[in-house]
Amino acid sequence: MKSLRFLLPVLALGLIAGCSKKSDPAASGSTAAAPDKVKIAFLVKQPEEPWFQYEWKGADKAAAQYGFEVMKLGVPDGEKTLSTIDTIAVAGAQGFVICTPDVRLGPAIMNKAKQKGLKVVTVDDQFVKDGKFMTEVPYVGMSASRIGRKQGETLAAEFKKRGWALEETGVCAITFEELDTARERTDNSIAALKDAGIPAERIFKAPQKTTDIPGAFDAASILLTQQSSIKRWLILGMNDNAVLGAVRAMEGRGFTHETAVGVGINGTDCIDELRKTKPTPFFGSMLASAPQEGFAASEMLYKWIKDGTPPPLDTRTEGILITRENFQEILKREGIID
Ligand code: FCA
């Protein structure tokens, strides 16, 4: 389970395996004694994204270490999320970790969890109620502001190192502002670029409609058509897929690693890109450890169920830059590749 091979056949299999645990005969149809083995679920909005597969890997590690069971399921929309909570309750879960497909589902998810007597720990995307974070629900995630800032600082440093002329350069900021963690990352990245001397009129926001490579590709393509005179691009976005989509759009218009530089966030969804023999405009990524976040969130939930120890309400992780030069070494050290 430790090797990357576990991830490569992608989620289809993992999903089927996870779903097949839905009807656990041992757990259904009985109100008898509490089960002796703790069972939790780990629900994620985009199971096809490597980030979430690595979080699951961390959850599996915690499960093996503490001896609990973890059901890993994809919840791509609100309806699926609420019905999955019913399913896992029937299957005997005592709580779940969740990265919700929509942060505004927070109150509905918490209501349902209360009805079913399930404990909840959120990861990555913090629940929102009436425009405010639900800080009463335990949250584990990346420090979006600091990681976003480092992304912008890295791009500014590359811009300076290359000696690009400001009047020929533009910043392509792939944004998804309806999600708070995404907005916090891109806002801080843009602020760092401005602090480094890139004026606001050289910074172009390209909103993505979906948080995947095609969504970012479309957003960047529109921008490239609108700003066809720009010769060099710095690319930022809320995660690796946002930057990868823009990189693909740029390559389609003839930009290369010499005329475009992108820095992602996650560090998990760009491994194949960094392995390519020829450099692409994808320069590097701010790695935040998905396995560690998955492990920590599952461990907290387990201890809460088992010993009644409530988790800390807010846990944030930092990021480090990985590039073509150092990614093998760092990802090995982080337990992400063998
Ligand atoms: C959000 C993004 C993921 C990952 C996570 C930490 O959920 O969609 O790609 O960056 O935050």
From TrEMBL:
Record keywords: Signal
Cross-referenced InterPro entries: AraF, Bact_Solute-Bind_Prot2, Peripla_BP/Lac1_sug-bd_dom, Peripla_BP_I
Coiled coil: none
Molecular-function annotations in GO: carbohydrate binding
Localization: Cell envelope
Cellular component terms (Gene Ontology): outer membrane-bounded periplasmic space
GO annotation (BP), single: L-arabinose transmembrane transport
Site (The binding site for the sugar molecule has not yet been established, but C-87 may be involved): 99
Presence of the UniProt keyword Zinc in the record: no
Domain Periplasmic binding protein/LacI sugar binding positions: 38-329
Signal peptide: 1-22
Gene3D superfamilies in UniProt: 3.40.50.2300
A Pfam family matched in the record: Peripla_BP_1
SUPFAM superfamilies tied to this protein: Periplasmic binding protein-like I
PANTHER family: D-XYLOSE-BINDING PERIPLASMIC PROTEIN, L-ARABINOSE-BINDING PERIPLASMIC PROTEIN
Family: Belongs to the bacterial solute-binding protein 2 family.
Name of the protein this chain belongs to: Sugar ABC transporter substrate-binding protein
Source species of the chain: Nibricoccus aquaticus
